[in-house]
Amino acid sequence: MTKKRIVVMYGGKADEHSISCISTAGVLKALDADKFEPIPVGITKAGQWIVGGEDPRGWDLNGSALPTVEKTDGSRDVVLDVALGQDGFFARNADGTLESLGHIDAVFPVLHGPFGEDGTIQGLFEMMNVPYVGCGVLASAACMDKHYTKVLLAAAGIPVAPGITLDARGFDQATRFAANGDDILAQVEAAGLQYPLFVKPSRAGSSFGVTKVEHAGDAAELAAAVFEASHHDWRILVEQGIDAREIECAVLCPKAGEEPKASWPGEIVLDKRAGGDDQFYDFDSKYMDSSASHVEVPANLPDELLERVREIAVRGFKAVDGAGLSRVDTFVTPDGDVMINEINTMPGFTPISMYPKAWEATGVSYTDLITTLIEGVLR
């Protein structure tokens, strides 16, 4: 059987660059070598596409520094000829000549955040007529921007957390937004938002730039949180903290037109919170501190509530025109209400990530999951 040649992309210009590298290490190690020939294509933080760099399979979260894609003596730039479609991937040799990377059957863009998960690279592959794993342009763009995710979900009748959206482009940089604090506070109070608040960039992932604001009426604290979020995006959400458990559900729809399937919902249990620490699921809890949290699938909820989460996750996936895969993050309140927090169209594939763990608990192994996703887009 001829192996299908799959470009696996990783790195990128987003803050989640290193997490993409770790995700790709997991994907490449789990890829079915009898069916697929991977062609790893890395993207540096400067946006250069390369082949032949450091092997991502050797990367993990155990080192002192997070991995990054770097040009090396043995790496070559990747050049695209859009008109050639699946035959339009080339590497530039040292003498300037171009060498074909061969016919590409599909691309698996294991990219997180802007320029990888936001519809931009999906649009490039659409123009090239190259099959790719994951959501299309609309869903990728809408779900990368939490503001518009909420707009689409609310229009579909799906509950979301109360909040406001700020445009920080006109805020006073010289005072680190302190001069805008009273106005921001007035908007929060006008919206009737209850504390604690969570301030977050609208278009960022992996909890970059997220701050918990606990002191009602403190304009300085609120302005400082908005300033922190503005390092990642000018569009900023200020959301009411929800007294709820954060339950995540993996959705799978590998072939266009099929009915999406939902995994057993899982929960990230914050272990230090049980010890009295005031903890939320930030970047360190997700990736850097293995003692900070653990995954439980299925979540410790009644079966009826687990099924309600699954149903709402599929509804949300359809509302944003999802395809391929997504992780739908929900809030489940003590009264049993379910609302969607956000939708990740290319969720983490690291060894400790919820998406593969949720499917494994539902009966789909890591390797079979990757195979299913790739085969769903092959022609």
UniProtKB/TrEMBL annotation:
UniProt superkingdom: Bacteria
Binding-site list for Mg(2+) 1: D329, E342
E.C. designation(s): 6.3.2.4
Residues annotated to bind Mg(2+) 2: E342, N344
Cofactor: Mg(2+); Mn(2+)
Active site: E16, S206, S353
Substrates-to-products reaction catalysed: 2 D-alanine + ATP = D-alanyl-D-alanine + ADP + phosphate + H(+)
Co-factor binding comment: Binds 2 magnesium or manganese ions per subunit.
InterPro entries on file: ATP-grasp, ATP_grasp_subdomain_1, D-Ala_lig_Van_CS, D_ala_D_ala, Dala_Dala_lig_C, Dala_Dala_lig_N, PreATP-grasp_dom_sf
Binding site for ATP: 146, 198-200, 206-207, 239-246, 341-342
Annotated Gene3D superfamilies: 3.40.50.20, ATP-grasp fold, A domain, ATP-grasp fold, B domain
Alphabetical UniProt keywords: ATP-binding, Cell shape, Cell wall biogenesis/degradation, Cytoplasm, Ligase, Magnesium, Manganese, Metal-binding, Nucleotide-binding, Peptidoglycan synthesis
Pathway membership, UniProt: Cell wall biogenesis; peptidoglycan biosynthesis
Subcellular localization: Cytoplasm
Main location: cytoplasm
GO molecular function: ATP binding; D-alanine-D-alanine ligase activity; metal ion binding
GO biological process: cell wall organization; peptidoglycan biosynthetic process; regulation of cell shape
Domain ATP-grasp, first and last residues per copy: 150-375
GO CC term, one of those recorded: cytosol
Pfam families in UniProt: Dala_Dala_lig_C, Dala_Dala_lig_N
HAMAP family reported in the protein's UniProt record: Dala_Dala_lig (MF_00047)
PANTHER family tied to this protein: D-ALANINE--D-ALANINE LIGASE, D-ALANINE--D-ALANINE LIGASE A
UniProt record similarity statement: Belongs to the D-alanine--D-alanine ligase family.
Its job: Cell wall formation.
Protein name: D-alanine--D-alanine ligase
